[in-house]
Specification:
The N and C termini lie far apart (about 40 Å). The protein is globular and about 45 Å long. Helices cover about 0% and strands about 30% of the residues. By secondary structure, the protein is mostly beta strands. The strands form 5 sheets. It has a 6-stranded parallel beta sheet, with no helix packed on it.
Length: about 200
């Protein structure tokens, strides 16, 4: 239902779609609030409601343990207001979180130790015993290695967020510490066009 001219509000009944894995409503003319019932879609993996006219706060339920499989959440380019929920770092498997180009206010919540961190499957490998350069005996079956994974994209720019970016965000950057995977982080850290201090500063 994306890239159409759908109007009206998003029905609360979406929350009853227990087996739904992807919800794509982006680039329409939807209004009203994001239903808190989204937090009941236990199998959801991908939610995109970007490029609409949605208003109101971001439901805290989007970052709850009920959405254990949610990896992608695109809420950008709407008219969402209020502060970013304090539990935004509690999302069990979130990799991409786009909140940019809204009307969000307040400060960026601190990421507690262990948040935005989960175990995920990495590459497949086999244990091999090589007798010489051309003869190797490998184990069967092969193995999947579980490694700690983190959020990779966090977009917050073009909002009205103020204050300081806490160092807890820096600690998950992919160029800061070994194992960090946050490679894309956008925030309003530049001075506004009319001059003055940046809306967001680094700690």
């Amino acid at each position: 239902a994306s890239f159409n001219t759908l109007t009206g509000t998003i029905p609360d009944t979406f929350g009853s779609l227990a087996n739904l894995q992807e919800l794509e409503l982006q680039s329409n003319q939807l209004t009203g609030r994001i239903p808190s019932q989204f937090g009941q879609m236990a199998q959801i993996d991908f939610i995109s409601v970007e490029n609409n006219q949605l208003t109101g706060p971001i439901p805290t339920e989007l970052f709850g343990i009920n959405l254990a499989g949610l990896r992608i959440l695109y809420l950008n380019n709407n008219q969402l207001s209020s502060a970013i929920p304090n539990n935004y770092g509690s999302a069990p498997r979130l990799k991409d979180l786009w909140l940019n180009d809204n009307q969000l206010t307040g400060t960026l919540p601190i990421i507690a130790e262990g948040e935005f961190l989960f175990l995920g499957m990495s590459y497949e490998f086999q244990l091999c015993n090589c007798l010489c350069s051309f003869l190797c005996i490998c184990s069967n079956p092969s193995f999947l290695l579980l490694l700690p994974l983190q959020i990779e994209e966090l977009l917050l720019n073009n909002n009205d967020i103020t204050g300081i970016v806490d160092e807890s965000v820096c600690l998950i950057r992919n160029n800061t510490i070994l194992g960090g995977q946050l490679g894309v982080f956008h925030a309003d850290c530049q001075p506004p066009p009319g001059g003055g201090e940046p809306q967001i500063q680094s700690s």
